[in-house]
Amino acid sequence: MRTEFGTPDVIRIEEVADPELVDEGLLVRVGATSVNPAEWYEVHGRPTIARFSTGLRRPKSPRLGVDFAGVVEAIGSAVDDFAVGDRVFGGRTGSWAEYLVVQNAVARIPDNVSFEEAAGTPIAALTALQALRDHAAVKPGDKVLVNGASGGVGTYVVQLAKRLGAEVTAVCSTPNVETARFLGADRVIDYHKADFTAGGDPHDIVIDIAGSRGWSDLRRVLTRDGLVVVVGGPKGSRLLGPLSHVIRTQVGALFSPQKSKFFIQKFVRSDVEHIARLMEAGTLKTVIDSRFEGLEQLPDALRHFGEGHARGKVVVSI
Fold it and tell me: Is 311 exposed, middle or buried (0-12, 13-18, 19+ CB in 10 A)?
């Protein structure tokens, strides 16, 4: 938890009362969690504009974390689809803790999946799924370019796009080329060695996670009626953060036949269950960049994530 904005050093471990179980809820003993951009921004208090909702001078809530995987310790009186001892995963604010009460967006962890693998999926895999299926409407034969293919979201986008029948071009740095190929990318562009916006075959869809190029560059790799789905962006200015990239891309698309979309991932239980089925079948894997052990290592995990070089997910075992 934290009661002020700042570096990861403001995070501290405190003993608090166990969360109160509600009739429709599950009390979960958390086995693992993961780090996402949301936690980095929440701890640092950036972008400044977001403080109107998170707290102007200090955080409105001390709780941190969303992704979780763990074991059901108790069930509410109205719950009939889970049992004590079930291994579950999903998303709930306050997951950087030993215990958590959840009601929605939760599913069973397949037997062949570890806590750490499951904990990597809630935000990142659901973002990838909803970007491709709901906002890009990817269909077999579509050419999809993934800008930022080696990060937490990007590794899932590559796999899910292939599952949807797309021809995938992955853009990443030199150390991550082989990982992108392993995940199924048909073509990999090392941005240290080539400019992926310089030309070549146009793409129907660009999933823009890295936010490293502006609209005028991205449109060059699109078909005439192509689409950019903006998932993330660079840290940007202190005032607007990644929103500055989103805004510029949206404005640029206003004057072009090509289009741009931006969305915020939603926790939907049926989507969490869908991710579970894909993991069980072995068609969706979590790429783990690094593992940290214990709540006391959360500051180190967040600091490592903030360096911006993670290949896949940063996970923390509780």
Answer: buried
Q: What is the pLDDT of residues 5-32, one digit of tens each?
A: 999 999 999 999 989 999 999 999 999 9
Q: Cα separation of 102 and 106, whole Å? A: 7
Contacts of 51 (CB under 8 A, 6+ apart): 45
Distance separating alpha carbons of residues 275 and 160, to the nearest angstrom? 10
Burial group, residue 212, by CB count within 10 angstroms (0-12, 13-18, 19+): middle
Of 134, 115, 277, 296, give the one whose Cα is nearest residue 207. 134
Helix (H) or strand (E) holding 291: strand 288-293
pLDDT tens string 46-79? 878 878 788 888 889 999 999 999 999 999 999 9
- Phi, psi at residue 39, to the nearest 5°? -70, -35
The 10 Å CB-count burial string (b at 16+, else e) for 273-296 is ebbbebbeeeebbbbbbbebeebe
Beta partners for residue 66, in sequence order = none
pLDDT (0 to 100) of residue 46: 86
Cα–Cα distance for residue pair 153/38, rounded to 1 Å: 13
C-alpha triplet 33, 34, 36: angle, nearest 5°: 140
Distance of CA 303 to the CA centre of its chain: 17
Closest CA to 100 of 166, 21, 165: 21
Place of tokens 């709540």: 295
Query: Beta strand 67-75 with 99-102: parallel, antiparallel or unpaired?
Result: unpaired
Residue 56: which residues within 8 A CB-CB, separation 6 or more?
A: none
Amino acid at 31: G
Whether this prediction's pTM lies above 0.85 is answered by yes
Nearest-angstrom CA–CA distance, 99 and 30 = 6
Read off φ and ψ for residue 22, nearest 5 degrees.
-105, 165
End-to-end CA distance of the chain: 14
Is the pLDDT score of 259 beyond 90? yes
The whole-number pLDDT of residue 79 equals 97
The three-class DSSP label of residue 79 is coil
